[in-house]
UniProtKB/TrEMBL annotation:
PROSITE patterns: ATPASE_E1_E2 (PS00154). This is Phospholipid-transporting ATPase. It comes from Canna indica (Indian-shot). One of its GO terms (molecular function) is magnesium ion binding. Keywords: ATP-binding, Magnesium, Membrane, Metal-binding, Nucleotide-binding, Translocase, Transmembrane, Transmembrane helix.
Amino acid sequence: MARGRRRKLLWSKLYTFACGTSKFEADHSHIGGPGFSRVAFANEPDCFDAVNQNYGSNYVSTTKYTVATFFPKSLFEQFRRVANIYFLFTGCLSFTSLAPYSAISAILPLIVVIGATMVKEAIEDWRRYQQDIEVNNRKVKVHHGGGKFEYKEWKNLRVGDIVKVEKDKFFPADLVMLSSSFDDGICYVETMNLDGETNLKMKQALDVSSDLQSDSSFQNFRAIIKCEDPNASLYTFVGTMEYGDQQYPLSPQQLLLRDSKLRNTDYIYGVVVFTGHDTKVMQNAMNPPSKRSKIERKMDKLIYLLMGALVLISLIGSVIFGIATSEDIQDGKMKRWYLRPDDTKNTFDPKNADVAAILHFLTAMILYSYFIPISLYVSIEIVKVLQTIFINQDIQMYHEESDKPAHARTSNLNEELGQVDTVLSDKTGTLTCNSMEFIKCSIAGTPYGHGVTEVERAMARRKGSPLLEDEQPDENHEHPKPTIKGFNFDDERIMNGNWVNEPRSDIIRMFFRLLAICHTAIPEVDEDTGKISYEAESPDEAAFVIAAREIGFEFYQRTQTNISIRELDPVSGERVQKTYKLLNVLEFNSSRKRMSVIVQDEEGKLLLLSKGADSVMFERLAREGRNFEAKTKEQMHEYADAGLRTLVLAYRELDEEEYKKFNINFMDAKNSIDADREEKIEEAADSIERNLVLLGATAVEDKLQNGVPECIDKLAQAGIKIWVLTGDKMETAINIGFASSLLRQGMKQIIITLEEPEIIRLEKEGNKEAIAKASKDSVMSQINKGKGLLSSSNDGSFALIIDGKSLAYALKDDVKNLFLQLAVGCASVICCRSSPKQKALVTRLVKAGTGKVTLAIGDGANDVGMLQEADIGVGISGAEGMQAVMASDVAISQFRFLERLLLVHGHWCYRRISSMICYFFYKNLTFGVTIFLYEAYTSFSGQPAYNDWFMSFYNVFFTSLPVIAMGVFDQDVSPRLCLKFPMLYQEGVQNALFNWPRIIGWMFNGVCNGVMVFFFCTTALQHQAFRKGGEVVDFEILGATMYSCVVWVVNCQLALSISYFTIIQHIVIWGSIVVWYLFLLAYGAITPTISTSAFMVFIEGMAPSLSYWITTLFVVIATLIPYIVYSTLQMQFFPMYHNMIQWMRFDGHANDPEYCQVVRQRSVRPTTVGVSARIDAKVNQLARKVHHAVHSP
């Protein structure tokens, strides 16, 4: 619609419910009191009184740190980890004489690790800062006096400024709207950034200011706005505007919130009332709940375990050292003369053996610090960030139509994606497209429309009767009709004007005329093509207007009091223009469940046109208007069975006297200042919406997204339980369940509902206490009955279906555990008519009750609570805005991508992180055990086995990159096989790769390897001639040799553990060993005052000696042989599921159906949900029939 025309609308006469003129009510009596002290001086932000208010600026900061707080806050975050506190403690002790090595070598690794994490924090915060700069530097027109508006940065706005916001721009602060490009001060606002809803909301300025239509009109404008203090409530606002010596009440209808967008309106003028962090959107801003994976929490326990073991061995060593020290000098002879116990004060003084033991304990705590993997946390963070990059870059999860890839918004939960036990899903917009299509209708008791829904296809498959007519829909059409969004209707009886030949053409004309008139949509005319599109408050409403247009009743224009349509004249056969005077619009809301308009046609007839839910419409029909009621109800039931959403259409003619009486009552109610104003309006509307004549019913389809049944089937095969939490009716939810393969024929349904005669009788009586008691008893009875069915059935699967009323009682504290026990025993769970709060409570119940990982997936603002409550929240970036995505941990654009996200990336991430942590503890134990044994070998004298810098660089340079590469690139099974054998996913659900036996096994392997390295090296070198001159080794050469063996062993062990080699892994594994030798060369060439015991140790001591090379080769092979033997036996005789798939691929059987089926039969549990379960059920049924036929006489 042209802008100039739209600017002339007087919408106050149309939107009687939502936009009524604000009146003083009880709430406004609080103005000026506590909590309502905000004062804004419009157009005078610099006046004395305004400056004294000292309100904050409009600068917004979402950063975690500032320049001043970065170091203290970041350091505090780092030292919340007990491991870092321990390393800080040992670092401080390293500056004392107790340290067995230099202070800098002890403190440098800690600085590197903490520095790397702080750099990561700084980079992330810098990105937030850059975003803040972009937002704060946006510009908006601000009144600078003299009726002139100039651009000003958002951050410089002040309370009281008059701003002009133009079409498709965001509001820079919370504004009180003064006027708009429409004469009546109406504007349309999109609040997607606030509540995730994409449907437009209407706002209206006060009548007194709505005539301020130009910049110059604000030259002398002055007003004082008093309102509530800043708060987080998005939907309430109480205030007054003092203008021209009068006070006018303000309501939420005049408040425009920051970060919402102006749509379909050329411009608005407004006064800034809340700025910066006082705005409602910033008051709502909060850090999302902190989520940590179960593996990370178990890793903390391992750290504590190792620290406990470290303290224990330090204590044991100190006791032994104290005893040995006390006996060092006997009869004037020194046993350990090399420690000079006769020339020491405390450390080795036999007279103060107790003190020596205590000091040795502190020395041992420093020396054994290498049992704790200092670089573990930072390495895992690096790996997780790289893993999220691979998830984000996966082309298989890119949706070309919406141009949206997958986006892992946090890297903390990567491994949790591989451990999901239960998926809790929204339906509309998640399983379905949230794109409504007009597909069928019932008019005068006659069904129209031949389209076949996804649910009908599934039902046909369920009954074994495929819909052949839908197999090739375009066979009889040379030129298939173009696809029209929102319209999938096909019936030649009423298409192309053929409706005029139908027996009840008069009712058909009124039916589609109603669809073209009874709505709040706005037509938009494309200036280039002339095509009309519609801006509607919901997809359903847009589908109705489009359907009317396609049948031949085109809504094309809306003026201030008229609606114009083009329709076919049955007499002349020509398209004619009809204009209807729009008198009243009675809007739809959740309590009314209907919408009506009152119009006057060109002949002067007054018509009430109404559409609404069957639960409220049939009871409003006149006795003579029920001619087709039975047939319509029957067809609506069929439509519901087909998964369609239905609305009833009815109308009536009004006489002038009746309308005048209604209009007086309605306007009195509208202008009422009493607290019960809304009730009076409702009562007036209810009085006229009576004695209607039934026209028929509409049926629109919310289609399943592509790939949903297949995705659910794969997830079910993976052993993942799937719950659907929806606000739809039970019949619709059940049919969507069949279409998506959550339900199947032969599956026993346990239905819990309160639609019982006794409950209905009590509801009519209105005794709330009796209703609550009877309802709770009924729910408990049905739950216990369901549990009885579960326990008495040995075969077959169950589906639990519960409605919203019953769910409210099932979630009570004394019932919820019974409900959970029943639900967990069922293959599928569908919760109907669920509120957002109920969704969150169900998610919390499953998470806490099962102790397993839960994943919630949804697309709307009503799913936010559920997403935040679950262990993992997945947001669908669909048609309901970005609120769910903003609250999620991972965002995807289609439900089907959940299959690859979990079964491929989830499995890989879980396996990689698990293996990485186990390997970290293994390599540190291997290294730490050699240090401990060498100190024991030297009678716990505190002598380190290695050079200071050897120990410092062990975790940083010689063993860190290979394990990071494994955490990023390793694959036990290819993506194709991950999807082909979904039961592989159960390894993560059952935590098979990070359970205590596996962890202890790796730790035991580390201890054994450390013992073998030490004893093989000392035995081989202790008493043997090492060089040609017959010299034996000194402790420098022994330490460097042991260190070489450790570096070789742990890197070769990693190579043996990797399933999938890339060139990067080869480079980092063998490169780490090469780097060790290069370091030994370079460091040994430095002056001995720096290199100390490593001076020329390789060039002069180790490299020329054949013994060193032979010893290294022998020790590495001997140490790794036990692991090789164990792995071979385990894979051969006790293979895990991924081992079986690896063998199958290695043997070339990956494409052999029979062999693959054998592998599948080794799955952890039978599949009871999905397409595969349906096929298995049919096969089993046929097998039973064959068996019965063979054995029957």
